[in-house]
Amino acid sequence: MLRADRKSRILGRPAPRTARDARPSFEARAPRAARALRNKKAPGSSFAGGPRFNPFARYGEADWSKVRLYGVGCVFALLWVLLWSRAWYVQVYDGDRLAGLARRQHMAAETVSGRRGAILDRNGQILARSVEVRSVYVRPGEIHDVDATVNALVTALEAPAKQVREAVASKRGFAWVARKVDDQAAENVRKAGLPGVYLSSEYERIYPFKQMAGQLLGFVGMESKGLEGLELTFEDVLSGDSARNVVQRDAAGRRLDMDGGAGRASLRGHDVHLTIDTQVQFFAEEALARSVDQFDATWGGCLVVDVDSGDILAWAQYPFFNPNAYRDYKPERWRNRLAADALEPGSTLKPFLVAAALQEGVVKGDTTFNCEKGRWKTRYITIRDTHSYDVLPVNKVLRYSSNIGMAKIGLELGSKRYWEYLNQLGFGDRTGLPITESKGILRDPRHWSEPDLITTSFGQSIAATGVQMAQAYLTLANGGERKPLRLVVDDEAPANSASQKVYNDKTVKQVISMLREVVEEDGTGTRARIPGIMVGGKTGTAQKADETGRYGHERLASFVGFAPIDKPKYLILVMVDEPQKNSYGGVVAAPVFKHVAMRTMAYHGLLPDAPDPEAPTYATPLGKTGPVEVRREVAEAVREAPDGVPNVVGKSVRRAVEVFARQGMVPVLRGAGQTVIRQTPEPGTEWPKGQPTGQCVLWLSENS
Amino acid sequence: MSQGVGSWVLAMILSVLTSLVLGLSLVWLNIERMDMAYTLRKLQGELDGRAALTAKLEVERDRLMSPYELGRKAEAMGMRGARPGQIRRIEEAGR
Questions:
Q1: Residue A384: beta bridge partners?
Q2: Which chain B residues are closer than 8 Å to A286 by Cβ?
Q3: Which one-letter DSSP state was computed for residue A704?
Q4: Residue B41 resides in a domain
Q5: Which residue did the predictor score with more confidence, A247 or A496?
Q6: Which residues of A touch B71 (CB under 8 A)?
Q7: Which residues pair with A137 in a beta bridge?
Q8: Which of A148, A165, A221, B87 is deepest in the core (most CB within 10 A)?
Q9: Mean pLDDT throughout A655-659?
Q10: Residues 6 or more apart from A545 whose CB is under 8 A from it?
Q11: Which of A32-41, A279-288, A536-545, A626-635 is least confident?
Q12: Cβ neighbours of residue B68 under 8 Å, at least 6 residues apart?
C-alpha cells in the first residue's frame, strides 16, 4: 500500500485505494501491439520480458538518489564534526575548568589531626590522655523549624535553651552548639536526625587521677594546645600533626578512603614517660595535704627523689589543682610553685656552708663556736637563736641550727669561697628540668656586705626554688658529686648539669653524720625519725618578708632529709608555707618527711621488720570487725603463754606468724597450706635465744 | 600477500578483543575499588569507634585504680598503711 502510495506520488497520480482501483484503468491500458512490443526482450536483458519499463528514467531519478545519499552523508558528517567539536571543546578548550569542577564534585579535602600523645608515669600509668569525643554544631541556613530544633537539642543535650537558641538562630553559616559532649548526649543528637544539626569528632584531654600532680602536668586548652606545665613545655612532642587529605566523595557525599587510611598513625603525637611514681606521688600528696590543713598553711610542696638515678618520684603541691576543670581555678592554684617560686630557704641551707667550711679546712669536726647565749650583736645587725647556746662544736651548731654559730662559720669562710660552693651546687641557675622554673637569687659575691655574708650563712639573702634545694641535697646524697635531677625517662642530662665533684667523700661523710644527729640525736628534726631505720636531714624555719620588705611574722617551714642516712636511697624535701598554728620546720614539715619516707620504703620493700615503739597506735581497734578480731586473737594467743611459746596449732599461718613476730621471731614455714598443724618450739617452752630466724618452724596443712 | 593481510587482520581483531577485555577489566576493577573503599571506610569507622571506646575504658580503669580511689576503699574496709614491724615477707621465710 505504501509502496503504491509512493509510486503514485512519483507519477503524479493518486494511489489506488482498493484492489479494483489497483487495476489499470481503461485509458491507462496501452494497445495490445504496443504492449507486445514493450514486452519483447531486449538484447542482453536478463529479464525474460526484455528491459523493464522504468517510469523514472524520463525524470532523472538516479541524480536524486545521489543527492539524497550526499545529503545524508553531509548530515552525518556534520553531526560527526559537531560531536568532535564538542569533544574538543570539552576536553581541550574548557578541559581544565571542567576537570576542576568534576574534581570538586567527586573529591573533597579533609583535615586529619593526629591524637595528642599521652603522659605516663614510670610504670606506664596514664596521667594524661586524649580521648575522642563529639561536638555538636549547626548550619543555621539549613534549619527550617528553629523552635523544634531548639527544643530537640535542649532535650538531647540537657543544655540551657538560651545557649542553644543563640547558636541555632545565628546569622552565620556555622555555629557550635555544644563542644565535647558525653557519648549519651551525642547519641541523642544523632538519633534525633535534625536537619542542619551535625556532629564532629574532637579530642578531649582527660587526667584520670584528677588532681594528682596537677600543677606539674598543667593543662591544655579547648583546641588541645598545651597552656601550662608539662603540657606546655612538651607541646612539640605531645601534639599530633595535621594533614590535609584529598578523599573521594560519592553521590551521597560520603567520603571514601582510597588509600585505606594509611598515614593516620604517623600523625599521632608522641607519649612522654615521666619518672613520677603514682604511688609515691600519692604518699607525698596525702601527707602534705594533712600537714597543710593541720597547720592552716598557705600551701605546701614535697619532692621525692631517687638518689641512685636522680629520678623525681613525686612532685606534690597542695592545695591541689585538677586539670580536668582548669577553668574553675585561679592562676595561683595552677602555679608550679616548687619550680617557679624562689624563696629564702632558711636553715636548710646550713649543711652546705658547713660542708664548704670543712672542705676548705676553715673548721674541723671539733672546732667550737661561741653561740653567745642566743643573741649576738655585730657591727651592723643583731642575730638571735631560738634557744640559748653557749659554746658548741660544729656538729652541734648544725644539730641545733644555731644562726650565730653558722654566721661565725660563714665569716671564717668568706664570701667568695661560700659563693663558689653555692654556685657549684646550682643556686642562682636553673636546674634544666623541662619545666618553667625560676633561677632564684644568688648575688655576685663582690656585692656582698658583711651582713649579707652573715645572713646568707643561715639561709637569708638568697632565694632558691624547691627544685634547686633538692638538686643541692642530691649532690650531698650522691657523695658530693653533682648529679642532674631527672623528670622524664630517657631524657638527656641538661647541659648545665655536668657531673662535677663539689665535696670530697670525707666532707660528705662528716656532714651526713651531722644530718643524722639532727634527727636521731636531740636535734631539731626528731619528729622525722622512723623506727627501725636511721634517717637524717635538716629542718628550716625561714622568716618571710612582708609587703614592706621587712621580715614579718610569717614563716616557711621546711625539712630536707635522706632515708636511710647511711646509704641514702630517697631524698625528700618538704616545704610548708606560712603555717599558722606552728611555724617550726621540725614540727610542721618533719612529720611529712617521716610519713612519706616510711610509706615509700614500705612500698619498695625496704622497710625493716623492726618492732615499732608506737605499736599501741596500730594495735588500736580500727572500728571494723575483721581487723579487730585478728588483733584480739593474736593478743589472746600471746596472753595464753606469757612466759613461753604460745600454741598456734590450728591457727592460720598469718596469725601464727604475727604471734611469733611479736616476740621478735621469724618462723620458717614448711608446706604450702593456710593452717598450722605442728610447731617448733613446742607450746609452753621457752623462747629460743640468739638468731630470730631459723629456730622456729611451723608446719602447714596441705594446700586446700 | 593474502596471508600477510590475514595475519594483520587477526592481530587487529586480537588487539581489539584485548582492548575490550582490558577496558572491561578496568571498569570491573574500579567498581571493586569503590566497593572496597566503602568497606574500608566502614571498617575504619568501626576501628576508630572501638579505639575510642578502649581509650575511654582504660581511662576509667585507671581512675578506678588510682591510689586515691584504692585508698578510700581500703579505708572503708578498715585497712591502713603498714608500719615498721607489721610487714612480713612470708615467701622469703618459707623458702
A1: A375
A2: 71
A3: -
A4: yes
A5: A247
A6: 282, 286
A7: A176, A198
A8: A165
A9: 81
A10: A344, A551, A552
A11: A626-635
A12: A209, A210, A212, A282
Nearest CA in chain B to A202: B52
Question: How much of chain A exceeds pLDDT 90, in percent?
Answer: 48
* Among candidate residues A116, A109, A329, the one with its CA nearest the CA of residue A223: A116
Tell me the pLDDT band of A474, cut-offs 50, 70 and 90: very high
C-alpha cell at A645: 611459746
Beta strands in A141-292 (DSSP E): 175-181, 197-206, 219-220, 226-228, 242-249, 255-256, 272-273
- H-helix or E-strand spanning residue B68: helix B67-76
Q: In this predicted structure, which of A194-198, A225-229, A645-649, B46-50 has the lowest mean pLDDT? A: A645-649
Q: Which residue is closest to B38 within chain A, CA to CA?
A: A256
Q: Is the peptide bond before A51 cis (omega within 30 degrees of 0)?
A: no
> What is the model's pLDDT at position A58?
53
* A302 within 8 A of A596, measured Cβ to Cβ: yes
Q: What single-letter amino acid sits at A232?
A: L
Residue B63 maps to a domain: yes
pLDDT score, position A286:
94
Number of separate domains in chain B? 1
Q: Do B93 and A212 touch (CB under 8 A)?
A: no
Dihedral over alpha carbons A547, A548, A554, A559 (to 10 degrees)? 90
- Indicate whether B55 belongs to any domain: yes
pLDDT computed for residue A245 by the predictor: 76
| CB crowding A623-639: b at 16 or more within 10 Å, else e | eeeebeeebeebeebee
Q: What is the DSSP letter of A324?
A: G
| Domain coverage including residue B60 | 30-76
Mean pLDDT, rounded, of chain A:
83
Residue recorded with cell 641557675: A429
Q: Answer yes or no: is pLDDT of A62 > 70.
A: no
| Nearest chain A alpha carbon to B44 | A261
Percentage of chain A lying above the pLDDT 70 cut: 83
**A274-282 average pLDDT score:** 95
In a domain, B81, yes or no: no
CA torsion angle A521 A522 A525 A531 (round to 10)? 50
Structure-model confidence comparison of residues A266 and A156, the more confident one: A156
B85 contact residues in A (CB cutoff 8 A): 531-532, 609-612, 615, 661
Determine which helix (DSSP H) or strand (DSSP E) holds A594, and give its type and residue range. helix A590-603
Task: Return the DSSP state at A656.
Answer: H
Cβ atoms < 10 Å from Cβ of A417: 17
Mean pLDDT (whole number) for A212-221: 94
In this prediction the pTM is 0.71
pLDDT for A107-123, tens place per residue?
877 777 788 999 999 99
**Annotated catalytic residue within A130, A224, A239, A347:** A347
Across the interface, whether the CB atoms of B86 and A612 are under 8 A apart is answered: yes
Query: Quick check: is A449 catalytic?
Result: no
